[in-house]
Amino acid sequence: PPPRVSSLTMSDKCTRCQKSIYAADQPTRVTGGIFHGGCFRCKNCDIKLTQKTAQTAGGEVYCGSHHPDRFAKNG
């Protein structure tokens, strides 16, 4: 099961959809954001993510194949 988010406030909004998040939604909190379970998917390919597979960048979550750093140009 996803880790519990015990410190939700009435103003917490999903980073992806900007809708309110409630404890019953079983949200996932990662560096840079908090997401509804249904919104915790790769921004590019929409694959469902887990705490282990999610990578963050710019307040969004990605799978390992689509993380922006993977495509950064060297030098």
How would you sum up this structure, described in words?
- With 75 residues, the chain is mostly beta strands.
- Helix content is 0%, strand content 16%.
- It is built from no helices and four strands.
- Strands 1-2 form a two-stranded antiparallel sheet.
- The termini are far apart.
- The model has no long low-confidence stretch (mean pLDDT 84).
Mean pLDDT, all residues: 84
**Secondary-structure element sequence?**
EEEE
Helix content: under 10%
Rg result? 13 Å
- Give the overall shape, derived from the CA principal axes: elongated
Q: Would you report the number of β strands?
A: 4
Return the structural class. mainly beta
Largest sheet: 2 strands, antiparallel
Q: If strands are numbered along the chain, what order do they take across the biggest sheet? A: 1-2
- Figure out the total of helices: 0
Percentage of residues in strands: 15-25%
Low-confidence stretches: none
Distance between the termini: 41 Å
Question: What topology emerges from the helices and strands here?
Answer:
Layout: E1 28-30, E2 33-35, E3 55-57, E4 60-62
Antiparallel strand pairs: 1-2, 3-4
Short recap of the structure:
This protein has strands at 28-30, 33-35, 55-57, 60-62.
